[in-house]
Amino acid sequence: MHFYRVDERLIHGQVTYTWVTQHRMHRIVIINDELYVDEFAKMVMMESGDVSMQQTDVDVLSIEKAIEEFGSGKYSEENVLLIFREPLDAVTFIKKGSFKPKELNVANVGKSKSGREKFSRSLGSVVYLSKEEREALKELEDSGIPIIQQVMATSERKKLEL
Question: pTM (2 decimals)?
Answer without folding.
Answer: 0.90
